[in-house]
Design goal:
Strands 1-5-4-3-2-6-7-8 form an eight-stranded antiparallel β-barrel, surrounded by four helices. Helices cover about 20% and strands about 45% of the residues. The longest helix has 14 residues, at about 150-160. With about 190 residues, the chain is α+β, with helices and mostly antiparallel strands. The radius of gyration is 16 Å and the shape is globular. Strand 6 (about 95-110) and strand 7 form a beta hairpin. It has helices at about 10-20, 80-85, 150-160, 170-180, and strands at about 1-10, 25-35, 50-55, 55-65, 70-75, 95-110, 115-130, 130-145, 165. The chain has four helices and nine strands. The chain has a single domain, classed as Hypothetical Protein Pfu-838710-001 (Beta Barrel).
């Protein structure tokens, strides 16, 4: 299960966070395409299916809702989104179509918490839908080891120090809003 906290950020806040935490920072060029059926069978059930290329290597991911800040997540190597569904034991709900996406540079670094580690990821790029795009500027803190409470304390401290606003919507939800016409709720 993935547990993370997302915050919208300004370019200045992203630069300040990068300067505040000693590196080296890993840099990853990311491009993501989200898939669903034409009827929205996955998003209507709060599921996300994507293919993400990280420095050119493709990974397919299927995510399901869970309680709180966590969610179920299954991955499969390669650019076939159906492989991620198979990894989760889920059925393909019908023909899949690309709906929206994102392209961004991620800078990430493992940082210590009181009892483990969290990944700090700084994302800068664009959310995309057809010929439309909008800026993507966000910081994510993801629990890697240790307690949820310690990782959340770190996330809240970073947010306060760098004046970050909590971002309750996923990249998918924001890109889906940009796509227009795809009007599923609660994705």
């Amino acid at each position: 299960m993935e547990i993370e906290w997302k915050f919208s950020a300004s370019p200045e806040a992203l630069a300040a966070m990068e300067a505040a935490f000693p590196g080296p920072w890993e840099q990853i060029e990311m491009r993501t395409v989200y898939f669903d059926t034409a009827e929205g069978a996955l998003a209507g059930r709060k599921r996300t299916l994507r293919v993400r290329w990280e420095n050119g290597a493709a990974v397919s991911t299927y995510k399901t809702p869970d309680l709180g800040m966590g969610r179920g997540e299954w991955e499969a190597p390669g650019d076939d989104p159906k492989a991620a569904l198979a990894a989760a034991g889920a059925q393909v709900p019908g023909p899949l179509v690309p709906v929206c996406g994102a392209r961004f540079l991620r800078k990430r670094l493992l940082v210590p918490t009181d009892d483990g580690w969290a990944e700090l990821a700084l994302d800068e790029g664009a959310l995309t839908a057809g010929d439309r795009e909008t800026p993507l500027l966000e910081a994510e803190i993801e629990l890697k080891s240790g307690s949820r409470g310690a990782a959340e304390a770190l996330a809240r401290a970073i947010a306060a120090k760098f004046d970050l606003a909590e971002e309750p919507r996923s990249k998918f939800r924001r890109a889906l809003d940009l796509a227009g016409g795809w009007t599923w709720k609660n994705c």
